[in-house]
């Protein structure tokens, strides 16, 4: 199906600016046709050979502790209960432990680690499924760093590459650059799972399109009520009646346009058609009755109930249908206290389904062109905050899989205490640059002019982490 | 190549087309230099490479030791030419890694420019406009006012004829939306069509300028700029009350407050000598930024962010400058240094505020839209307070009351202390300290409480049953059912003599009274001798959740000398299940039946009242006084009324966040990398050197605001009129309405922009005058029906060869449907309201206990107010508005995008607001529209689009009506369902099939492209 992206006039103009900037020569005739009708999908093919076509981000909101998940620190266990060395913490930014700088004590890892798979990756016991099923499929990055120590700005930074409001989310960027492959679903879908025990608020701006046109914003699909807002026809309106309304609207629009010839109208007609296709297709998308028992069991879900497991299965169904960017928020990782039980609880909610998503995509041949990212907005302190850990920005762990990522590989390292990422440090811009690279987009040439400046997802930074690319 | 050539020439100001001397610096050369060179060789001193800057002629042409970067007149001797032409990757400029390649054409422009002498010009926007002649002839038939002379002169150069004038119905709809954001009413249309006078159009414009809806509509644009919201942003995004400031904006537009005053009051109203309350209120503008309440943040970090926001917003709104770029380093393109940024920062850095919970300073200020009502309340309050202060002789009042009590026959309620409590169904019954009995545990379908108690008194006349509430009960009680209700099917009593247990009788009740009974479940049903369904006393638990009291009056006095054992049975056996009384308390009395009150005076009080004043002990007097004040305080009514008024005042006028100046100024430093904790050089207030100096003005916010509105300022007027133009035409004369700097686009009609801005200043910053001027131009009145070629050649209508045409903004779309359906509630100003929104949206994203709340959908009128009053939650904006491109209001927005998406179609087709409005439109069509179906359809068509439908349109609509009518005639159930969408009841007097069929036609009308387009 043709992309639905470049259909309206203002959009076509913006697209022209992107095409110009991305150095793709394009003649006036082609340009002319762009302004009027849908563009051929090839017109905006990325300059680089793409390794993947779509991205699924499993956003572990709240800041999962790297020290209880993917970053094994025996030294931390040794020093458990002892004062945190001042040399490590001096002049470092601290969130809730402000004012306790003199009393900081080391908290040893609260869960055991062991090696898994042929690759022998170190994974904690809170993730039995990830450890036993996909250790050889994932690439663990233990040397992530971010700049923001509070949840909301840290998410904003992770999603947009900036803490300044109004920058587009990465999903919007990707859809702007590559268009949608899907004629009956939005190209950027956001899911938020229920359950998890914690409730860090998450703002819709995390998936907004910023200065990019509104059609690139993320569309949230819900597990309760209408899965997409206003997707259901009003009470008392049958599908046939609804279709008749749309058909008649189009006929009337066409009559109105005979004297006018407004190109915007053609777009509107197309959008009404797509709206109807969405109405027809979304119920089937969220209805899992066509999934066999063993697949439901693989994820550990009984049906589309908004749990993380159900959303992982939904993410796979979205990927199958060509949705370019899926972002799945799971809240519950903000373990300021009682991290031992807390992280065990939250991990249990996501472990099986995270592994299942990788396995399921793999068995369908979709993993090779789907990039999966698993991670939060920051990590947690090696120091105790009571029985928990505070926010921490100098080191955290994420993993990626599929889509051109080197499998069964651990990249980067932190110091002995897991405080600073010290080896092969990866910052948020590097992550974005690498993700775009895998999608076939050169992050340095991928710009959008706004307020007189050519903006990039990676701002003026970003290093492509070649080492983790297969 | 036609299109490309075309768009290039479009950007050239008129004069340079004829220039034979070389490329025009502002329009041709600087954009190339800015895009490719200034990043490293521009105003930013820190980023500058090779110590070379080429944004200044003096620097660029400096002798660099035998050679020059630019050697005027000698391209071959200019280093930059040899560098841009070089093949050597080490030599070539721009360096390959910047990916900023120059085209051959661009290189040639630079070469020609140097050859012609390398003349620099100042950036147009930084030079104040000067009065020049208006081009073209005054007697051109297409000219209505001077605006058209600029436009026609430009069109003539392109050999384009202006379009003809649009039809009158198009014009009134265009003007109505432009000035009020609402469609014209049929009365307004008919009046305009009937007005054959020369001034008909201008009169029509005047009517809309005078409408209160004008202020609402204009305020709506201003709210985007002012990043107004009803929530605090950041993570928790809790509620704030800043709507009184919004009322100020509406009022200011309606009063046509001159733009200079409008500016000064919002930026520095508090600093105006003897500032009025309303001038202080105006300063809410710069408190509309987000404010965090998150724990673990650093105060100064966020306070700094708030000040940053003010600088960024203020400079964008009044100067269309991207000052924020100079926060961390010198501006890369515009000559604003980082130091200068912090000099402006200093003006806004003087508010006595903090970062966390930084809501102060704030003040309770009245809304200008509610001033009249406020005065009335104030007057009443003064009177009431006077009354309260008049001392009353309390002792005399008490004695008068006590005498009355003493005269009354004995009585009062004796609260019984239960001895035994049994539940037939297994509930636990527990005695509480106040002698009430709390039921808990199992909640059986049927239950009989058997309660015994003793009283020493004989000759009892009545029993009182209090059904009390309790936190432990479902919903707080008073009943045990999950809906808080109870159904007492029968109340029974057996009295036994304590002296002689064989003496016993069943007490027969003659009357029952209660302070509350549910309809159909009157208290008398608890003494009617039957437990049949439906039978018993109930109290509307699901909705009321309040205690209730009943009294059962015996047919004859009962009880025994020497004490009585009372055995009560509270039977819950109606066919309801689990409907027990949650917390009963029993009392008895000896008072005569005709004097009994549900709440009697306690026995001890009666006793004291019966004594003479002299005989009362001190403690007895105190007890009497205490009781009197608690129950009969003569001031209570007065106080309640005062409290009510005060509450009303608080509710009408919450505290509004405003600006204030610290007594002792805060020092301001340049912040290294823009970081709050990396202060550098100390700076004082000042403005960037590229602008005219402040002169004698105070170096504070007031001086800054006065400087902005000084007629010599090159930007303020231009930026404002450009936004007016953008509102009316969909795109400004400068397309980048938010950026007039070097990287912004050049004006399509520079002469016109300058002429308009000078006219704005000359008129005394008269905003309505400017709207009238533009609306009266022939340019604005052109038709937009011009055929495909015109759209292809000039998609954005930059040349103004046709009339404006654009999709309506989100708020306009909703308001238009409400207006044409007759649902719109035209109430000016006030608190934000909560119209329809899919359930659960807020809590799904933000459910932090103690901070979050669910969306409380409004009722009645609140569902049908104009969209500018819709509660604006930053983290979860109204989905309907957001779908149609409304911003989040996290920051200042000058231009909204205008997209066209399937989600918009879904919202319009399926959103309850629109389906309900369609039903109301259908009702109007059926009731007001005439006798025939065609008349009715035409009527609705006109309400929505202002015009009469053409024959083929009518035929399609008619066919749809007929088909739907058949459908609904055989599917009445579906019709009823459709009629029940929305909170308002449907008109049951109308034939439901016809109404449903017409509702379908009305949905069609709302979904037409024409309906959501201003054309």
Describe the structure.
The complex is a heterodimer of chains A (about 475) and B (about 1000). Chain A is α/β, with parallel strands linked by helices. Chain A has helices at about 10-20, 30-35, 75-80, 85-90, 130-135, 150-160, 170-180, 240-255, 265-285, 295-300, 310-320, 340-365, 430-440, and strands spanning about 55-60, 115, 120-125, 140-145, 190, 220, 325-330, 370-375, 380, 390, 395-400, 410, 415, 420-425, 425, 445-450, 455. Chain A folds into 2 domains: about 1-45, no CATH class; about 55-225 and about 305-470, Alkaline Phosphatase, subunit A. Chain A contains 13 helices and 17 strands. In chain A, strands 1, 4, 5, 6, 7, 8, 11, 12 and 15 form a 9-stranded mixed beta sheet that branches. A two-stranded antiparallel ribbon of chain A has the order 2-3. In chain A, strand 13 (about 415) and strand 14 form a beta hairpin. The radius of gyration of chain A is 23 Å and the shape is globular. By secondary structure, chain B is α+β, with helices and mostly antiparallel strands. In chain B, about 40% of the residues lie in helices and about 10% in strands. Chain B has 38 helices and 18 strands. The longest helix of chain B has 21 residues, at about 300-320. Chain B is elongated, with a radius of gyration of 39 Å. The two termini of chain B are about 30 Å apart. The interface between A and B is large, with 87 and 103 residues.
């Amino acid at each position: 199906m043709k992309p639905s992206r470049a259909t309206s006039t203002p959009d076509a103009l913006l697209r022209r600016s992107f095409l110009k900037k991305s150095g793709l020569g394009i003649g006036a005739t082609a340009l002319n046709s762009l302004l009027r009708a849908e563009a051929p999908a090839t017109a905006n093919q990325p300059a680089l050979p793409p390794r993947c076509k779509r991205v699924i981000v499993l956003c572990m909101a709240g800041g999962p502790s790297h020290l209880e998940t993917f970053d094994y620190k025996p030294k931390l266990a040794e020093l458990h209960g002892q004062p945190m060395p001042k040399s490590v913490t001096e002049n470092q930014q601290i969130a809730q432990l402000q004012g306790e700088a003199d009393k900081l004590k080391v908290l040893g890892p609260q869960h055991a680690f062991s090696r898994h798979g042929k690759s022998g990756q170190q994974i904690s016991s809170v993730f039995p499924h990830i450890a036993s099923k996909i250790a050889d499929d994932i690439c663990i990055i233990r040397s992530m760093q971010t700049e923001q120590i509070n949840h909301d700005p840290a998410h904003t930074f992770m999603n947009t590459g900036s803490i300044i409001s109004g920058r587009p989310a990465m999903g919007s960027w990707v859809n702007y650059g590559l268009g949608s492959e899907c004629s009956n679903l939005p190209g950027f879908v956001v899911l938020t799972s229920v359950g998890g025990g914690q409730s860090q608020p998450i703002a819709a701006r995390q998936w907004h399109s910023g200065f990019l046109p509104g059609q690139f914003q993320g569309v949230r699909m819900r597990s309760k009520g209408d899965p997409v807002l206003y997707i259901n026809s009003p009470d008392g309106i049958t599908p046939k009646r609804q279709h008749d309304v749309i058909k008649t609207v189009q006929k009337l629009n066409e009559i109105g346009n005979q004297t006018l010839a407004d190109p915007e109208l053609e777009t509107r007609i197309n959008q009404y058609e797509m709206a109807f296709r969405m109405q027809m297709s979304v119920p089937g998308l969220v209805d899992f009755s066509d999934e066999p028992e063993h697949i439901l069991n693989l994820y550990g879900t009984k049906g589309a109930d908004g749990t993380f497991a159900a959303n992982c299965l939904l993410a796979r169904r979205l990927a199958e249908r060509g949705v370019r960017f899926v972002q799945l928020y799971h809240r519950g990782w903000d373990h300021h206290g009682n991290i031992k039980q807390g992280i065990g609880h939250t991990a249990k909610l996501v472990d099986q389904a995270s592994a299942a998503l990788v396995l399921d995509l793999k068995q369908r041949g979709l993993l090779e062109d789907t990039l999966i990212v698993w991670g939060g907005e920051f990590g947690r302190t090696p120091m105790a905050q009571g029985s928990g850990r505070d926010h921490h920005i100098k080191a955290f762990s994420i993993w990626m899989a599929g889509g051109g990522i080197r499998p069964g590989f651990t990249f980067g390292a932190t110091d002995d205490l897991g405080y600073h990422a010290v080896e092969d440090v990866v910052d948020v811009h590097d992550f974005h640059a690498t993700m775009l690279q895998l999608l076939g987009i050169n992050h340095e040439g991928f710009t959008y002019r706004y307020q007189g400046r050519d903006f990039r997802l990676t701002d003026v930074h970003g290093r492509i982490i070649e080492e983790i690319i297969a | 190549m036609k299109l490309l050539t075309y768009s290039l020439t479009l950007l050239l100001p008129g004069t340079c087309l004829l220039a034979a001397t070389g490329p025009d610096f502002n329009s041709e050369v600087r954009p190339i230099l800015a895009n490719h060179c200034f990043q490293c060789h521009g105003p930013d001193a820190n980023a500058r490479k090779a110590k070379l800057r080429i944004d200044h002629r003096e620097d660029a042409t400096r002798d660099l030791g035998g050679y020059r970067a630019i050697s005027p007149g000698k391209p071959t001797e200019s280093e930059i030419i040899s560098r841009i032409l070089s093949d050597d990757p080490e030599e070539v400029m721009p360096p390959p890694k910047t990916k900023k390649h120059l085209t051959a054409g661009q290189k040639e422009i630079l070469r020609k420019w140097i050859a012609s002498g390398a003349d620099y010009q100042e950036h147009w926007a930084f030079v104040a406009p000067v009065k020049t002649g208006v081009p073209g002839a005054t007697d051109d038939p297409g000219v209505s006012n001077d605006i058209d002379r600029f436009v026609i002169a430009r069109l003539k150069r392109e050999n384009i004829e202006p379009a003809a004038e649009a039809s009158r119905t198009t014009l009134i709809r265009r003007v109505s939306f432009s000035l009020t954001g609402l469609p014209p009413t049929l009365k307004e249309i008919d009046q305009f069509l009937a007005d054959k006078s020369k001034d008909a159009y201008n009169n029509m414009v005047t009517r809309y300028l005078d409408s209160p809806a004008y202020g609402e509509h204009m305020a709506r644009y201003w709210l985007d700029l002012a990043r107004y919201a009803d929530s605090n942003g950041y993570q928790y995004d809790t509620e704030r009350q800043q709507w009184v400031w919004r009322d100020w904006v509406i009022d200011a537009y309606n009063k046509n407050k001159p733009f200079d005053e409008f500016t000064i009051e919002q930026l520095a109203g508090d600093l105006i000598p003897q500032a009025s309350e309303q001038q202080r209120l105006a300063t809410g503008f710069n408190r509309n930024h987000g404010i965090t309440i998150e724990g673990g943040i650093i105060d100064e970090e966020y306070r700094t962010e708030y000040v940053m926001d003010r600088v960024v917003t203020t400079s964008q709104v009044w100067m269309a400058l991207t000052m924020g770029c100079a926060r961390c380093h010198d501006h890369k393109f515009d000559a604003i240094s980082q130091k200068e940024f912090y000099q402006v920062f200093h003006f806004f850095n003087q508010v006595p505020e903090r970062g966390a919970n930084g809501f102060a300073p704030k003040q309770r200020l009245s809304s200008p839209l509610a001033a009249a009502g406020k005065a009335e309340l104030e007057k009443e309050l003064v009177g009431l307070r006077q009354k309260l202060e008049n001392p009353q002789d309390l002792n005399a009042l008490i004695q008068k009351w006590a005498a009355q009590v003493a005269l009354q026959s004995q009585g009062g309620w004796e609260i019984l202390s239960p001895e035994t409590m049994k539940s037939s169904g297994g509930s636990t019954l527990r005695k509480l300290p106040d002698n009430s009995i709390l039921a808990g545990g199992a909640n059986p379908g049927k239950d009989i409480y058997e309660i015994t108690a003793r009283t020493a008194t004989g000759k009892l006349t009545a029993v009182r049953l209090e059904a009390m509430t309790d936190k432990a009960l479902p919903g707080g009680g008073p009943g045990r059912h999950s809906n808080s209700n109870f159904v007492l099917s029968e109340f029974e009593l057996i009295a036994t003599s304590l002296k002689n247990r064989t003496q016993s009788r069943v007490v027969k009740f003659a009357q029952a009274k209660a302070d509350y009974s549910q309809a159909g479940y009157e208290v008398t049903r608890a003494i009617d001798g039957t437990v049949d369904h439906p039978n018993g006393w109930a109290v509307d638990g699901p909705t009321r959740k309040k205690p209730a009291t009943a009294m059962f009056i015996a047919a004859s006095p009962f009880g025994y000398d020497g004490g009585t054992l009372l055995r009560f049975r509270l039977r819950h056996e109606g066919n309801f299940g689990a409907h027990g009384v949650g917390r009963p308390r029993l009392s008895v009395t000896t008072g005569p039946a005709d004097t009994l009150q549900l709440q009697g005076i306690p026995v001890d009080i009666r006793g004291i009242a019966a004594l003479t004043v002299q005989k009362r002990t001190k403690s007895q007097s105190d007890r009497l006084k205490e009781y009197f004040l608690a129950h009969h305080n003569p001031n209570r009514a007065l106080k309640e009324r005062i409290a009510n008024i005060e509450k009303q005042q608080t509710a009408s006028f919450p505290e509004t966040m405003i600006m204030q100046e610290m007594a002792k100024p805060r020092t301001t430093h340049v912040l290294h990398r823009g970081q709050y904790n990396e202060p550098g050089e100390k700076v004082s207030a000042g403005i960037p050197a590229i602008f005219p100096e402040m002169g004698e003005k105070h170096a504070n916010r007031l001086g800054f605001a006065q400087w902005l509105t000084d007629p010599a300022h090159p930007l303020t007027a231009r930026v404002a009129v450009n936004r007016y133009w953008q509102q009316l035409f969909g795109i400004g004369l400068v397309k980048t309405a938010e950026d007039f700097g070097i990287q912004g686009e050049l004006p399509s009609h520079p002469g016109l922009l300058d002429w308009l801005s000078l006219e704005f200043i000359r008129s005394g910053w008269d905003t309505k005058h400017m709207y009238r001027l533009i609306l009266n131009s022939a340019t604005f009145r052109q038709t937009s029906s011009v055929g495909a070629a015109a759209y292809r050649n000039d998609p954005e209508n930059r040349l103004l060869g046709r009339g404006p045409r654009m999709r309506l903004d989100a708020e306009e779309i909703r308001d238009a449907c409400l207006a044409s359906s007759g649902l719109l509630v035209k109430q000016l100003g006030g608190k934000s309201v909560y119209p329809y929104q899919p359930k659960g949206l807020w809590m799904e994203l933000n459910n932090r206990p103690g901070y979050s709340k669910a969306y409380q959908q409004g009722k009645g009128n609140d569902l049908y107010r104009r969209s500018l009053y819709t509660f604006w939650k930053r983290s979860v904006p109204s989905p309907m508005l957001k779908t149609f491109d409304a911003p989040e209001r996290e920051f200042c927005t000058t231009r909204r995008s205008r997209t066209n998406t399937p989600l918009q179609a879904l919202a319009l087709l399926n959103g309850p607001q629109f389906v309900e409005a369609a039903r109301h439109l259908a009702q109007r069509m059926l009731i007001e529209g005439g006798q025939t179906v065609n008349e009715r359809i035409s009527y609705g068509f006109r309400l929505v689009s202002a015009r009469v439908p053409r024959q083929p349109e009518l035929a399609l609509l008619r066919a749809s009506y007929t088909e739907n009518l058949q459908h609904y005639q055989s599917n009445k159930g579906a019709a009823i369902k459709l009629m029940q969408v929305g909170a308002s009841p449907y008109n049951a007097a109308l034939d439901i099939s016809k109404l449903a069929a017409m509702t379908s036609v009305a949905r069609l009308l709302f979904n037409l492209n024409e309906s959501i387009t201003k054309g």
